[in-house]
Amino acid sequence: MAQQRKRDPLFDYEFARLLCRARYYPGTPRGVTRMWFNMYGATPGSVEGQAKRPDGLAKNPRTNYQAMFRSGSHQSATRGWLKPTLMTDSLVRKNLFGQSVGKGFLSDVHCPTGAPREAIVKITRAEPGGFEGKGLWRPASLGLRPRYENEDMKKYLAGGFLSGDPKKRR
Amino acid sequence: MARVHNWQIGREMSYWYPESRPKRQFAAVFDINKCIACQTCTLACKTTWTSGKGQEYMLWNNVESKPFGFYPLGWDLKLLKELAPQHWEAGAYQGRTIFEAAPAGNRVLGWRPDDLDYANPNVGEDDCAGQIENGASLQVPHMVWFFYLARICNHCSYPACLASCPRGAIYKRSEDGIVLIDQGRCRGYQECVKACPYKKTFFNSLTGTSEKCIACFPKMEQGLQPQCFLNCIGKIRLAGWISRPEKAQPDNPIDYLVHVRKVALPLFPQFGLEPNVYYIPPVHAPLTFLHQMFGPGVDQAIKTYRAAASDPDLAGLLGLFGCTERVILRWRRQGDSVAGLDDGRREIVRVPMREPIHILPAFDARYGVVRTNCP
Predict the structure, then answer these.
(1) Chain B residues with CB inside 8 Å of A138's CB?
(2) CATH at B60
(3) Residue B262 CB burial class (10 angstroms; 0-12, 13-18, ≥19)
(4) In this prediction, does ipTM exceed 0.90?
C-alpha cells in the first residue's frame, strides 16, 4: 500500500504540500510571516481536478468542491486547527456556556474553531508569480506597495504633499 | 467660475456654480480610532444598493488600510501629485484647490482610473509603513503604522462631480444636501468619475450611467441613519446635520464635534470640496501624514480626543455613536448618562457614561463550584 501511494503523485506529499502566492509583508519581523484567508484547503479530489482540467482549476471533478490552493492548505503547516481525533465522543469536557461539565460531542470542542496557530515552516520559491509567471504584481510595479515605493509614494508616506513649516499650518 | 466661501480652507475659492447652500446639510462623523476594518459597513451597503449587474465592482462604502490601501488604486496619491505640494498658513489654505488648478478647458483637476485600478479593492490591507524588527515595541505615535479609513461619498458642499457634469445630471438636494446622479439625464460621459477626488462615483457599464452613494436618502427622510452607520459593529459612525460654523449649535452632535470641539476633521480639505464626512484622526499615526490628509487641525483634534477620558461631555457624546438607528438631532449630558434627542427635544435614547461592572467571587458557595473566566 505504501509503495502504491509513493508512486501516485496525488497522494500524501503532493497533495498536502502547500503551494501559495507569497508577497512581501513588513508587519512581522524578518523570518516571521503570516497568512490570511485559509479556508478551502486542497483535497485529493481538488488536486486531481487541478492536474487534469485544461484550465487548471482546483475543482474536484466529482463533488465540485473548489480549493483556493493548487495543493495543501494552512493545515499543511500546523495541526492546531483541525483537532486531533483523540478528542472523541467519550471526552469529558466543560459545556460551552456555564460551569457544568459534560461528556460527548460539543461543537466548540470537536469542530474546527478559530484560526490555525503558528508553526515552524520552511519556505522555498516554487515558481515566479503573476500571469504566466511574468512581471511584478501591478500595484508593486506601479510603486504602490511596501518595499516597491516609487518617489511619489515615499513623498506621500512622509506627508510631503504639504509644504512649509508644520508649526505654521495650525 | 463663481467665487464661493469654503470655511474648511478659511477663504473664498473658485467654483463652477455660485454658492447655494441646502436648507440643511447631511453630515457624518467617523471615529477612525474605533474602526477595525471588519467591512460590515461595506457589506451592508453592498447588499442594500449594489448587488445588481454592472455594479459588481462598486463599493459605495469601502474601508481601506492607509497608507497602502487604495480603492481605486492610488486615488489620493495621484491627485496629490497632480496638485503638487501646497501649503497652509495659520489655518488658511494658501495653495490651489482642484477647481483652481483645473487645466484650461477643464472645470476640475482630476484623473480617470483605469479598469485595473479597481481590481484590488482591499490592496494594502494591514500593510504598515516601515518594517517591524525583531524585539520591536511600539510607542505613540507608532513608528510603524497604519490605520483604517472608512469612506463613503462626502456629499460635498462643492461637489466636483456636480461641477464637472456636462449634462447637469448631478444635483445636490436642497432639502438635505445629499448629492445624487439623475439616472435619466446621465449619459455616461464619466466626467464625474474623473472629477471626484475621492473616486466615489462609479460607472455602470451595463446601464451606461454612473452611480454613487445616496446616503440612504429613503432612510434619512424618515429620520433613520444609513445602512453603513446602523451596521457598524465598532459604533464608529454618527449621521446628522451640520450647520455653518457661525451658526454652530453645541447641542447638535455633529456641530459639537466639528465646530465646537474641532475634534472631527474633513478628508483632504485642500481639494476644496468642503466634504461633509468628518474624521476623528487616529492618535497613533504620524502627524505629517495626518496633516496631509486632514489639514492643520490634526494636532488639536488628537489632543482633545486623547483627553476625552477626563472630558465628560466629549466622552458622553462619543458614547452615543451607534446606539440607535434614529438620527440624533440634539444631545445632552445629565450626570453620568447622555441622551440623544429628536426634533422636538424628546429623548430617543439614553446611554450610561460607563457600563456597570459586576465582579463575581471565584468560588460560588451555592453550587460549590469554582468559576473560571471562560465564557
Answers:
(1) 73, 116, 119-120
(2) 3.30.70.20
(3) middle
(4) yes
